[in-house]
Structure formats: C-alpha cells, structure tokens
Amino acid sequence: MIRRVPVLAAALAALAFLALPIVAIFARLSWGNLAHELSSSLVTDALVVSLKTTVVAQVLVLVFGTPAAYVLATHRFRGRSLVVTLVELPIVLPPAVAGIGLLAAFGRFGLLHTSLPFTQAAVVLAVVFVSGPLYVRQAIAAFEAVDETLVAASRTLGARPMKTFFRVVVPLARGGLGAGEALAFARGLGEFGATIMFAGSLQGVTQTLPLAVYAEFDVDFHTALALGGLLVLVSAVLLVTLKWLASSSTSAFRFALSTSS
Amino acid sequence: MARLLLHFSVPLRTFDLELTLPVERTVALVGPSGAGKTSVLRVVAGLLRPAHGGVSLDGVSWNEMQPEERRVGFVFQDYALFPHMSVRANVAYAGPVGDLLERFRIAHLADARPRELSGGERQRVALARALARKPSVLLLDEPLAALDAHTKAEVRSELHELLGELGLPTLLVTHDYEDAASLADEVGVLVDGQLRQVASPAELVARPADAFVASFTGANLLRGRASRGDLTEIVLESGERVFSTDDGDGEVGVVVYPWEISLSRAHADDSALNVIRGEIGSLVEVGNRVRVRIGPVTAEVTASSAERLGLAGGGVAYATFKATGTRLVPL
Q: What residue ranges define each of the domains in chain A, with the CATH number in brackets?
C-alpha cells in the first residue's frame, strides 16, 4: 500500500509534464484576436504550402511505397533484411542528417547536380524521405498478414495478379495501410529539420506550418501560438483516425474487445 | 469423359514428390500428413512449379499456363473464402452466379459474410464458387476435415452425389481412408512423395501392395516368418502359428481385416482356423458395431455379440480367422 504512493506520484508527474505544453498553448492563446491572427498572410501562405506539399508527398508515398512494400512482403531474396533496414533507416535518422543527405544527393554540387533545393519540390522530397518509410514499414507488415491461401484462391478463380491485388490483397490489408498512411501524414505535416535545410523557409514557397511557427515565435508570439494550436488540433484528429483505423481493420469481434476493455 | 494426366516431379523439403497418375473420374489421394498430397493439387492448379514434367488435360499441356488460365475448381482445406466479401460476392468473383446459390442451398445466406457461416455452409459456398469458375477439373483438399462428425456423414453423401452429377476429373486429398473409399472410384496411397498403390477401394483391401497400404486401409498387420507348404505357415513374433492361403516366404506381414475376425471366450478346437489368444483391451463403438482390441489384433463384432461375450468385463478372449481371410505382404 505504502509503495503505491511514489508510483502514483511518478505517474501523475509524467502525465502532467506531457499535458502541460499542450494545455499552455491553449491557455495562452488570445482567443479574441484568434481570427485576425489566423488570417494573416503568413499563416494562410503556410497553410497553402503545407496542404499542397503534404498532399503531393503523400500521393507519391502511396503510389511508390505500396508496390515497394508488397514486393518486400511477398518475396524472399538474399539481402532482403538489408533492404528493409535501409528503407527503415530514415525513421531513426536525425532530421538534420536527412537534410544534409538530401543536399548531398540533389544539391547544386550534389551527386545528381539538380536545382531542386529551396523550391517547393524540395519540400515534397524532404517530406517523402522522412514520412515514406513509416508507411512502407507498416504496409509490409499489413501485406505479410494477408493469408497466402486467399491470394492463391483468387488466382485459381481466374483473377490475374493485378485483380487479385486490388480486390483481395488491398482490401484485406487496408487497416494496416490506412494506419501507416495516417502515421506518414502526421510525420510529414510536422516535418521541420530536413525541410529547413533542404528547402529553406521562404514564405509562400517553402514555408510550411511548422516552419512558420519557428519563423514567427520571436516576431509575434501570439501568431506562433495560434499556429501551434492549429497543428495540435490537426494532429489530434490524425491520431484519433489512426486509432480508429487500427481497430476497425481487425474483425468486429476484436473491435468489440478492444473498445470494451 | 475428359482425362487429366499428372506426370511430374517436385523437390519438396525432405523428399522428391514424383508421380504419374491419370485422372478420369474421382481419384482420392490418401496418405499421412506431410506426404505431399496438397503439393499435388498445387501443381495441378499451377501454384507450384514442378522441376520436371507437368499436367495435361486431354493431351493439351498446361505447363505454360498461369493459375488463372487453368480451369480448375480448387476447394481449399479451410475453404479460403474471402472474408471481406458476402457469400454472393465470393461466388460472383469466379464467374456468373446463375442458380448456384439455390443449387447449394445458400441463397438465404447471399448477403452474409463467411465468418457468420457454419462449417457445412462454408463448404457449400466454396463448392459453389469453384463451380462458378466453370472448371474442367475439380481439386478438393481435405473436403471433410473441417467438419464435425455430425455434419460429416451428411456432407459426404451430398458430395458423392455432386461428384457423380458433375462427371469432372476430380482429384481429392484426404488423410482419412474411409472418406477416400466412400467418395472416390480410385484411391492412390501417397507416402513420402511416392505413390505406393493406385486401385479401387475394393482392390486396395483385397490386394494391398505393402504393409503401409494394408494398415492405412484399416487392416491388422502381424509380423512373422513364412515357410511354404500346402498352406503358408507363418510363425509370428509372439511365437503363435497362423496359416495363410497367400504365397509368401521369409519375413512377411500377415494382413487381416477386423471384419474377418470372430471372437470367442473358449479356444475353438478347429484346426482349420487361426487362433490368437489375448487380453481384451479397448472397446470402441462404431455405429452398431464394436471394435475390440484382443492382444495384437483389432476385431470388429456386432454390438449384440460383444454383449453376449461380455467383452466389457475384460479378461482373455480368442480371436479366430480363416486362412482364406489373410493376405501376405512383404515387409
């Protein structure tokens, strides 16, 4: 009984610490000026840049990441685990290293000698690089969980591999794919380090919402706070969606179990 | 009648699966698990590529055809119904539904998901789906294994009737000899990737090719040493002597089916009969018959004679069988 007190205190301290910054953002918001602050050109420009680059980046992640994940999930070859590790590496890489790597690859004096840096395309590339692996990793697991017998059954029932993929594999993996995409979306929306190094922070061109928070916090703290509040709300919606996807992908029975517990 | 010809070899994990087998009506492949039975079906369906040879239908080779190009109706062991589709969508996936739902008595389940169905219903959906493909060959992997004993008998007779109606070359796989014997015109015994014997169920019982086939078809197998005479005399490992009308020499297995054996409490003084004395062991009721273990053999007697002999009480009994009721197989 006595032992419970310090455990409880530690748990409360941890929860308070985690909640405090979130609470602080909303506590310090000047609600009266909120509409005014959120309609400034800095905010609307950042919103448009974030929206455009995130949508393009996530379309690229889905279009290229899905087949890549399916190949890795269904083929066993020498060096497969090395390839999977390489794909996952950007997840744990410090964002600054991602940024310098992108410059080394696509910079004017980089390996590929492109003029991409400090353009909106550079924002997209940075977001794809840091968020794509989260999707691919989750998608591999989702595809691996699809019963091979169902794939075989589809083929014997006259379906070509493409039809089998879209009518059997993707519907069965969709929970995992959706959860992976929600993670990637959230990570991409919050992308900061790689973007600022590779794409800079030009208002209306490469300045995304997180970059705008950083650019504004010593100029107009209240606008930065308002942007922060906006990002908290978007992130919270994403998190709830993610949890819902993760639970609805399993059977109704499992869903019932996880919601009742 | 179409003729499917299997002639191929596939290296599996611990042995090579090698097989030459014509299939015109229903052929059942039986054997212990891990004998390569399912791999045979996978080769026919194009899901497993043989190292040599292949499959042909009426002389047309299927070797270069993808699974979706081969017209096979494959009913998988656990039925492999698509869990995210309704019953109707599952069937329609393979082709026009037509009257298949009515024919298989699943019309009332058209909008249900597979997880809501019983084992017997799932099997009917799987069959309907396989037939919607308009197959020229039917492949059934353990069609009765997923069913409980109660539904099994009913489904077995339905399936037998269906296979007769369809008249397609059918290859079915089962580990249960009785299922094979009741469904198939021919039974192939597959052990470690090799066909030990292919014959009609009656022929398998009358002339089992070897000890494995004999015991797989439910026979008693007694080991002994044979020496020729008017009748072949076999000295069993237990020291007892039995006689057989079959020819044999040296180390042999004496094959006796349970229904060839009668039981008595007293030693029958009839030199024309083989007699084995033993303690009464386990009693298992099978319908109105009882399977009794007497020493090294299993006998099958009617429930009334089991009662008359007081077998449930245990003790010593004598198992007797005629010399004509035995076959000798090499060991």
A: 33-260 (1.10.3720.10)
